[in-house]
Structures are given as structure tokens and as C-alpha cells.
Amino acid sequence: MDKKKRVLIVHNYYQIPGGEDTVVNNEKKMLEEKGYEVWFYSRNNDELKSMSRLRKLFLPVTTIFSFKTYVEVKNIIKRNKIGVVHVHNTLNLVSPSVYYAAFTTKTPVVQTIHNFRLLCPGALLYRNGNVCVDCIDKGLKCAVVHKCYRESRLQTLACVITLKIHRFLGTYRKLNYICLTEFNKKKLLEINKGKKQIIDPSKVFVKPNFK
């Protein structure tokens, strides 16, 4: 089969199931019906419940880069001659290391944008009952001050460090993006506001979800 028709879908499940999971399942089914060979790599945040204290201490580090994910995804890509890696969610356990597994094998990466996590550690651009764009206008430190991720300053800091490191490294500029609406695309590109280019606008596309 044409290498371009070999797709690896990557998704990190949250502890509480949500709409992203449904989208992942639907897209996998659709691709298979269209004749694509689909592989699936997932992690589940339920793993956090059984982690030892030592592993939990290293969680802020593995949120930034998980060697487990990197090695496992890289092996899948090489072993199955994957043509495209389609990423949905990376928080916490998959981490941006999945991108580097693809980069080192020269495999294109598509990231579907289900929320505003790349702009806002809380993911929703919403705080205390109001729209909040402080992290866009004033910087990601605002999220730490307000404990925007899981009402934890430490966990929010881990998210912020992850975003800052991968913005600095140019990780996000190498990805292709699927946004669900034109509004989401416009909002995502505000990440470039007043800064060096973090996301390449020519690599951002709109594709709505389907039933």
C-alpha cells in the first residue's frame, strides 16, 4: 500500500471521557472505510492513579518530553512505514515527544486543535465566568498566578514550561494544523501576536467535525 495511506493516530485520553474521544473514533473509522491502513497509539491519564510517588515527582518533566512515548511512537512509525502522524491530544502522558518521534523519521505531523491549549493552559480562554485572553495579551505567567490548570499552581506551571520550551524550540512551527472552525483558526494564529512566528499560518487548515 502507498505509504501516504498509512496513518498513525495518536491520542491521550483524559480521566473523564469527552468529545475528543468520539472524534478520534469517528476519524479512525472514516479513514479505514476510505481504504487507509490506520494504527492507533494512546495513553490514558488513568495511569496517573497507579503511579508511584517517584514517577509522579518526574511528571512535570515527562509532561514536557516523554521518552517512553518517543521510543514507542518512533518504533511504530519505522516498523510500519507510517506516512502521516495525526495527533489529537498530548496532555499529560503522550507529551510533545510524539512530534519528535515523527520529526526524526521525517514523517509529516497533523495536529487537530480541539481547544485553545496552545494559547491557554486552561484550554478554554475562560476564567471566573468571563472570556479571558490574558495569556495571549500579557503572557503565560498569568495562568500560573490564577492556577488555571486543574486549580493547581504546580500543574499549571508544568503546562506553561512545556509551552514555553516548545515555542522556543520551534516545535509548533513544524506542525500542520486542523482547526474545526474559521474562528478557531483565527484565534489560534493570535499565538504569533507581537512575537516571532510560533505557528506557520500556511500550515493551518479548517476541517469541521462530522457525525
Task: Describe this structure as you would to a colleague.
By secondary structure, the chain is an alpha/beta fold. It has a domain at 3-114: Rossmann fold, CATH 3.40.50. Helices cover 39% and strands 17% of the residues. It has helices spanning 19-33, 53-57, 59-64, 67-80, 97-104, 134-137, 141-146, 153-169, 182-188; strands at residues 6-13, 37-44, 84-87, 109-113, 126-127, 130-131, 176-179, 204-206. A 6-stranded parallel β-sheet has the order 2-1-3-4-7-8, with helices on both faces. Strands 5-6 form a two-stranded antiparallel ribbon. α4 (67-80) packs parallel to α5 (97-104). The longest helix has 17 residues, at 153-169. It is globular.
The CATH architecture of the domain at 3-114: 3-Layer(aba) Sandwich
- Count of DSSP H/I helices: 9
| Biggest sheet overview | 6 strands, parallel
C-alpha Rg, in Å?
17 Å
Q: What is the number of strand segments?
A: 8
CATH structural fold name of the domain at 3-114:
Rossmann fold
- Shape, please? globular
Mean pLDDT: 94
> In percent, how helical is the residue content?
25-40%
CATH class of the domain at 3-114: Alpha Beta
Q: Give the end-to-end Cα distance, rounded to a whole number of Å.
A: 28 Å
Q: Biggest sheet, strands in spatial order?
A: 2-1-3-4-7-8
Low-confidence stretches: none
